[in-house]
Write a structure and sequence with these properties.
The complex is a heterodimer. The longest helix of chain A has 31 residues. In chain A, helix 3 packs antiparallel against helix 4, helix 4 crosses helix 7 and helix 8 crosses helix 10. The mean pLDDT of chain A is 83. By secondary structure, chain A is mostly helical. Chain B is of the alpha+beta class. Chain B is built from five helices and eight strands; from the N terminus they run H-H-E-E-H-E-E-E-E-H-E-E-H. Chain B has a six-stranded antiparallel sheet with strand order 2-1-3-4-5-6, with helices on both faces. A two-stranded parallel sheet of chain B has the order 7-8. The longest helix of chain B is centred in the N-terminal third of the chain and has 44 residues. Chain B is elongated and about 90 Å long. Classes of the chains: A mainly alpha, B alpha+beta. Chains A and B meet through helix 4 of A and helix 1 of B.
Amino acid sequence: MSESLFSKKNMKLIKDPLNDDNPITVQVLGICSALAITVKVETAFVMAISVVFVMIGASVIVSLMRKIIPSRIRIIVQLVIVASLVILVDQVLKAFVYDVSKQLSVFVGLIITNCIIMGRLEAFALANKPGASFLDALGNAFGYGLILIVVAFFRELFGSGTVTLPAIGKIEILTSLANNTGYEHNGLMILPPMALITVGIYIWIQRSKNRKLIEENH
Amino acid sequence: MDVNSNKYTIGFSFVMVVIVALLLAFASEGLKPMQNQNIEREKMQNILQSVGLEVSRDEAQDTYNKYITEEIVLNEKGEQIEGDAFKVDVLKEYKSGGQKNFPIYIYENEGSKKYIIPLVGKGLWGPIWGYIALEEDKNTVAGASFDHKGETPGLGAEINQGWFQEPFIGKKVFDESGNYQSIKVIKGGAPEGDKHGVDAISGGTITGNGVTEMLVRTLKTYEPYLKS
């Protein structure tokens, strides 16, 4: 291998999707699941881990097989690889974290249709070495997970007054404060539209900090 | 080798499908016992919850075996029949055209009995279900727990919250002269002292009506048993 796995070029594969090229806020991919499972931090966290696993697995497998996949059926092959990994994740969740798998319900299955995964397989893994594909998958999955957790944090905090962390459990934050200040939980935060608005606010803040993301007016 | 030839493409897809199928079949079979155990324990947790016992999933099995001393199945007429009450899937029966087996789980602690009856019905968006526990007199409600598949969060979904379930405690299924009344969820709030009504959830009318319908229909079948 001519260049090291952690060369500047490769590190860019990880860093870019976290901010400059974030799959959700910049490429606007994978929005659907971001709306559905960000009611609690815990579900968002498990979803993020599942996507990281599927994404890395699929990217590395597709990249390893890139020279033997017949180009005419490559989309089907990618889909089969992603779908198998998703089914595995779903089965494992049902066996080990049953409660979380119940909350995620159909959305684990819908990881298959997550545009980020197919997008990165088509655009990157099919044309690059496994090492680079691994990093690209890691970066994009983290970029996705980051937004999920940030959005879930604010939705759960204002919607239910709690923050549910995996392994630690529910932490009541606003409920104790609320009794003194008269703050009522905003039930609207729990409904899907507020996820969209929260993502919107995130994009707004991100663009005001990171000016190169702003398109010029033509 | 030409990876784009027809022969190769067909061969490739064939091998891929076989490998994937084997892999998934092994994973599914391997994890099945654990998944089933989770489902069973969840059912035990729900049954115990209706008599006010909150147990963790790991303790569910032991606690269930300790307190649930008898499991009975009734038919549509309320007559006792042979069968494994725990294995009856009321939700499945309800979905496929009507409940046929009506289980009762009998809880016993220090000589006093409670009768736990599973319920299943329709909410606004999908199925709702729950358990209602009656005291030894087979009339007074000892506790109730409800859950749902996808009711509106903050409105109908509140049926799985304690503040909705607690008012059921102490209500009566039969009135003083022994006539069947069931328990109803009353929009606008149940009048003070109402022995057969609980407050509905504002904005959750259809879910509330679903709970009422479920209680009225299901408990009716148990009437002969409860009066015996």
